[in-house]
Amino acid sequence: MNVANPERHEAIVIGAGQAGLSAAHYLAKRGIDHVVLEAADRVGDQWRSRYDSLRLYSPARYDGLPGQAFPLPPNAFPTGNQMADYLESYAAHFDLPVRTGTAVDGLQATADGDGYVVTAGGRAFEAPEVVIAAGFFRMPYTPSFAPELDPGIRQMHSNDYRRPSQLADGPVLVVGLSHSGADMAIEAVENGHPTIVSGKAHGQLPFSVDSRTGRLAWPIMKFLAWNVLTIRTPIGRKMRPEIRANGGGPLLRHRKPDLERAGVELVEDRIAGVSDGKPMTADGRVLDVANVIWCTGFRPDFSWIQLPIFGDDGLPREERGVVTSVPGIYFVGLLFQYSFTSMLVVGAGRDAEHVVDRLALHARARSRAAQPERVIAS
After folding, report:
1. Interior angle at CA 376, CA 373 and CA 378, nearest 5
2. Computed from CA positions of residues 238, 142, 254, 269, in that sequence, does the dihedral angle turn out positive or negative?
3. Biggest distance spanned by C-alpha atoms of the chain
4. Which of 66, 186, 343, 356 has the least CB density, counted as fewest CB within 10 Å?
5. pLDDT at residue 333 above 90?
6. Nearest by Cα to 22 from 327, 322, 333, 337
7. How far apart are CA 312 and CA 122, in angstroms?
8. CA separation (Å) from 265 to 163, 194, 256, 298?
């Protein structure tokens, strides 16, 4: 690894999703030399790798990044692939310096403590400012007893689910009533599979975002999520740890009444173990199914960051993305970073602009400190 001869920039952005590209846009506007390191082969691949039927929960009018509207009718809900193509075109339109196929595996302070080294395989990059936009939840989680299921049961995590053709004939158990869980349950039952969903929802809207009411209500919902549900308000501070722990919000599109009307059986008891190779609920009910889709979420993975910036909960200690204890380190794209909108595309630009403003202030302070004092002759 050529750490002794790293490629140097004023700033490094790790990740080219909506948060990372928004940060890069603001860095470019300020004329700050930077590079964006993206693990995937193409910008947007994190959206292309999701299930085929995925549609965003926010309409296109709220899905554009700073400086470029989303190229769909305002009330249309983009698909995952359309979002991926938009991000790719956004990076190209603004000529952002993205290096794809560059998977970061380490971040540490330089030997002299005057900056940071980012490693990616055999390559190294150095900068005094690093913006981490690698995503909050990165590691798919399944319960420890999942391997005890009968090998004849086809099981997969939601991260690996693409389409109903992956399912074996017979009943489907979806574990976890999240957005993806509701989507996959609807898809399974509509494709002829008797379907059970196990788990409790984290609330639900009184209407679907796809309905006329939902479309009319979006400006109000955006106002509340943008201005009220923030770390500056009591209700926002109360909600933040719950959102971060559970990894999701209320059901927005397919709600519990919609699932029941479609023929999905809802079981609030969690899947607690295995009995005779079959999944078993906490109250002892054994479910005879041919498929299990684990919509059990993801866990954070910051193991590649070798810096003292994490709290007892394993999450970075930051304020609106700025790590004050280790100057020059920033985050964008964290769940509920500033507000509920931080978990949506609509919030990426605001969070990134705040972080880049603070980065620019820190860079100016460094520049002034590095200039030699001028001696004025008497």
Report:
1. 150
2. negative
3. 92
4. 66
5. yes
6. 333
7. 32
8. 20, 8, 10, 24
